[in-house]
Structures are given as structure tokens and as C-alpha cells.
Amino acid sequence: MRTAVAALCLLGVLCASRDVVASTMFELMKETAVSFTGALPCGDWDCDCAFRRQRGCCCVANDAVDLEDQTLSRLMHIWEGISQLSDQVSELTGDSSKLAFTAKDIRMQNNNNCFGPFTTDVPIPFDQVTLNVGNGYNPTLGIFTAPYTGYYSFSYTIYSNVGPAGNRLYYLVHLMLDGEVLASSWEDNREDSEDSASQTVVVKVRRGCQVYVSLQSGRQLCGQEAGRSSFSGFLLFPST
Questions:
Q1: Is 20 exposed, middle or buried (0-12, 13-18, 19+ CB in 10 A)?
Q2: HSE, side-chain direction, 13 A CA sphere, residue 72
Q3: Which segments of the chain have a pLDDT < 70?
Q4: DSSP 3-state of 16
Q5: Number of H-type helices and E-type strands within the chain
């Protein structure tokens, strides 16, 4: 009986000793990790959080931040796509179909009652605006800027009168699309002192592109009469 009691007491002492050793080893490992000053193999985890158990910290905070950034980036990309699609739908179904302008008369620039000549090609400012639905035409510059991509019809009529017979009737005008010639009209003779010319084109114009009638350098338009010269255009239908 005494032997059994002694054995049980010895077993209890050994168990207690094991718990003390385990506790001591854990504390030693913890102190070593906390006091370690080198780079810890934490991967993307927050080492300070993982080893020091800071209050309110999250060991996967770095991963969470990266995931948040990726999600925000994807949402912004989706929003940009939706905005572009919305613009395209608006162009095809919205008020873009209501777009037209008409302007006439050219303001003379000198005492000879002529517009020109100039040393460079110059847009002709038709400054009497009778229609400007959509506000695409700028009468000060004489330039139409397309607010929508689509197929447009543009027309112009140019008139010039140099006075008495024998004077040189000398002009050359171009209908321009962002520097590209779409159509031209010209006259160079001394037999006719008065003349006019007209052109009409249908062309696809992209949003932001500019259309205008340009007077070639060294040429002139003279003797303007009300309503004889004009520039107009309208949107036939939008496109992408």
C-alpha cells in the first residue's frame, strides 16, 4: 500500500515538472521571437502583429489591403466601361440627332471691300448665324466642331464680285476636315467679274473633329452681298 502511494506521488511530481518545463520553453520561444531583430519569414503577414499580439491588429492586414486595392481597381475599370457604353447609347438614341447649323455673309477685312488676301490659308468666318442647333458652329472662327461621331452633310456657297470688267476674279476655297481637303471651288480669270460656286459633301466626322471653309493664301473674296455666301451642315445619323 505504501509502495503504491509513493508511486503515485512520484508520477505527480514528474507531471508537474513536465508542465513547468513546457511552460518555460514556451516563454523562452516567445521572448526569443519578440526580441529577434532580423527579418522574420512572415510572407505577406504582419510580423509585429503575429509575434507581439498587438491589440486590434490583424495578421493578414497586408493581404486584406492588397485585396481591397485590387477590388477598387476592378470596380473603376468596370465603371469606365459602363460610362463609355452609356456615351455610345446616348449618341445613338439621345438628342444627338438634333444637330444643324447655317451661317451666311463674310465680314470684309480691308478698304477694298474684300476678304483677303492673306499670307496663309484662313478659315472663312461666316458670321451671320441663322441656325445653330447643338451649338457646334463658332461664328467667330468660322469652324464647326462635331459634338458627336456620325455621318454629316455639309454645304457651302462662295460668291465674289471684283467690280468693273477686266479686274481679276481670283479665289480658291476648300472645305476642310481637320486639315484634309473634302471639296474645292476656284476661279481665276479677267472675263467674269462676278461668280459663285457651291459644293455639298457627305462625310463621317468623329467627335471633336473640325470642319470649315478655308480661303487659300494669296486669294481673295470681294464685293459680298447679303446672303450670297453661306456655310451649313447637319447630322444625318450618329455612328460609333
A1: exposed
A2: 6
A3: 1-23, 25-64, 87-97, 110-111, 166
A4: helix
A5: 3, 13
CA 61 to chain CA centroid, nearest Å: 37
Residue 3 burial class via C-beta count within 10 angstroms: exposed 0-12, middle 13-18, buried 19 and up: exposed
H-helix or E-strand containing 57? Answer: none
Q: How high is the pLDDT of residue 13?
A: 45
For 178, list phi and psi in degrees, rounded to 5. Answer: 50, 50
Beta bridge partners of 199: 156
Phi then psi for residue 162, to 5 deg, are: -95, 5
C-alpha distances in Å from residue 107, one per residue of 114, 149, 168, 213: 8, 31, 21, 14
**Helix (H) or strand (E) segment spanning residue 11:** helix 2-35
Q: How far apart are CA 235 and CA 131, in angstroms?
A: 13
Q: Is 136 helix (H, G, I), strand (E, B) or coil?
A: coil
Q: What are phi and psi of 98, to 5 degrees?
A: -100, 85
What is the model's pTM?
Answer: 0.59
End-to-end C-alpha distance for the chain, whole angstroms: 102
The DSSP output letter for 178 is T
CB of 186 within 8 A of CB of 213?
no
> What would the grid cell of residue 214 be?
478655308
pLDDT at 53: 55
63's grid cell = 493581404
Angle at alpha carbon of residue 212, lines to 183 and 122, rounded to 5°: 100
Residue 64 three-state SS = helix
Alpha carbon 127 to chain centroid, angstroms = 30
Distance of CA 56 to the CA centre of its chain: 44
Alpha helices for 105-207 (secondary structure H): none
